[in-house]
Specification:
By secondary structure, this protein is an alpha/beta fold. It has 4 domains: 161 residues, MoaB/Mog-like domain (Molybdenum Cofactor Biosythetic Enzyme, Chain A, 3-Layer(aba) Sandwich); 44 residues, Alpha-Beta Complex (Molybdopterin biosynthesis moea protein, domain 2), CATH 3.90.105; 89 residues, Beta Complex (Molybdopterin biosynthesis moeA protein, domain 3); 72 residues, Beta-clip. The chain has 7 helices and 28 strands. The mean pLDDT is 93. The structure holds ligand LQZAQKY5 and molybdate ion. The site of molybdate ion has 8 residues, from loops. This is Molybdopterin molybdenumtransferase. Belongs to the MoeA family. Keywords: Magnesium, Metal-binding, Molybdenum, Molybdenum cofactor biosynthesis, Transferase.
Length: 409
């Protein structure tokens, strides 16, 4: 039996993007809770950082021209007429032939345009120093606004906040940040054979893996997951469970029941719900071919294959980018790593293959990818692997030694 409407991964992404609902719900949170959250708006600096010319060394604030030609044997002598105190405004002025003692981080007093490190000075007496090395204007200083200047967009909307971003926001005095609300994702596992992990097994029954892997993946992507448990393989049970989950979430993931077996009811259930409904059933990918994508009255539904490896890989390719960017379909800023595959791997053209691999670094620095062989029902292969190597749909396979893109977990 043929699956209908099989799309490539790229086509599946495109058709989803066309029908994607607008998800841009915002909330404002304290800066310290901002890590890994996605900015909802551009952040513009309202002040310069630093707000004053600031010394980067312990030494003396001087007029650079007073130091020109200074050498160890013929120092330039200047009068020490003041001292900059940490955290206080330095009024100066530093006149011709004068210097002020200044600590690292101290404010450059007006009149001075450079700092001479204490190592290049000698104290003649309390009031006079000799400078033994010339300084150019701007030496040993961070200029006002050199880090951030007023009016600059310091972070763009859609940016995922990293620790350094929190630091920069603190530097410009932003203590509350506008971020996108996490996408709510409902997770349903279907299959009469499934039992919860805390239940005893019996022949024919297996524990529910996908609820757990998907829950972790949603959290990792910045979404807010809710488990709806194990749903029986019948039309009415799945329909009721899906309606409930759609009501409470922006996205629903259904694992199992997506292929063409007689009990595979996911697609049929989706067809009875809202518009535009089923967008694809089957993608040209291995593993993960029997995947479903749908948009139902502004909510996204994915039918993921039951095999745990396939469900994880399809989640990463299709669902994760939508959760990470809270709705505009732009994946986060990440790049694959290039590694040399260590075996010949066959693949069919017209299909994207994702091969589980472990990575090794050889003595000469080359990074190699060893395929982790095993069927897509084996969760242990995902645990062994460091990532997946992509064999694009244009290729018939790869030969040992060929470079492949590896997406790390
Ligand atoms: N005649 C064909 N049979 C199958 C095809 C095909 O093209 N023709 N495709 C195979 C591929 S590839 C996959 S992937 C699976 C997908 O099947 P379903 O999405 O319908 O999933 P199920 O049949 O419900 O389950 C498949 C497999 O995975 C186990 N499973 C399901 N859910 C879970 C879970 N939450 N935790 C752990 N394990 C789970 C289930 O017990 C089955 O063993 O279809 C192939 N068949
Ligand atoms: O596509 Mo299935 O997802 O190969 O195991």
């Amino acid at each position: 039996m043929e699956l209908f409407n099989v799309l490539t991964v790229q086509q599946a992404r495109s058709v989803l993007a066309v029908h994607l609902p607008v998800w841009h719900k915002e909330e404002t949170i304290p800066l310290l809770q901002g890590l890994n959250r996605i900015l909802a708006q551009d952040i513009t600096a309202k002040e310069d950082v630093p707000g004053f010319h600031r010394s980067t060394m312990d030494g003396y604030a001087v007029r650079a021209r007073d130091t020109f030609g200074a050498t160890e044997s013929l120092p330039s002598y200047v009068d020490v007429t003041g001292e900059v105190l940490m955290g206080e405004e330095a009024h100066g002025p530093v006149g011709a032939g004068q210097a002020w003692a200044i600590p690292t981080g101290g404010m450059l007093p007006p009149g001075a345009d450079a700092v001479v490190m204490v190592e290049y000075t000698e104290e003649l007496d309390k009031r006079t120093i000799g400078i033994t090395k010339p300084a150019a204007p701007g030496d040993n200083l961070v200029r006002r606004g050199e880090d951030v200047s007023t009016g600059a967009v310091v972070l763009n909307a859609k940016h995922r906040l990293r620790p350094q971003d929190l630091g920069l926001l603190a530097a410009v005095g932003v203590t509350e940040v506008p971020v996108l609300k996490p996408v709510k994702v409902g997770i349903l596992s279907t299959g009469n054979e499934l039992i919860a992990p805390d239940q005893p097994t019996s022949p024919g029954r297996v524990r529910d893996i996908n609820s757990y892997t998907l829950y972790g993946q949603v959290l990792q992507a910045g979404g807010s997951p809710t488990l709806y448990g194990i749903i029986e393989d019948n039309f009415e049970s799945l329909r009721q469970a899906l309606i409930g989950a759609l009501h409470e979430n922006e996205m629903v993931l259904i694992s199992g029941g997506s292929s063409v077996g007689t009990r595979d009811v996911t697609a049929k259930v989706i067809e009875t719900l809202g518009n535009p409904g089923l967008l694809f059933h089957g993608i040209a990918i291995k593993p993960g071919k029997p995947s479903i994508g749908a948009v139902v009255d502004g909510k996204v539904v994915f039918g993921l294959p039951g095999h745990p490896v396939s469900a994880m890989i399809v989640f990463d390719l299709l669902a994760r980018p939508l959760i990470e960017s809270s709705g505009d379909g732009q994946p986060g800023r990440s790049f694959p790593l290039r590694a040399a595959i260590t075996r010949n791997i066959h693949s069919a053209t017209g299909r994207d293959d994702f091969l589980r691999v472990t990575l090794r670094r050889l003595e000469d620095g080359t990074i190699v990818a060893d395929p982790v062989l095993g069927k897509s029902g084996l969760i242990s292969t995902m645990v062994k692997a460091d990532g997946v190597a992509h064999i694009p749909l244009t290729k018939e396979g790869v030969e040992a030694g060929e470079l492949v893109d590896v997406w790390l977990f």
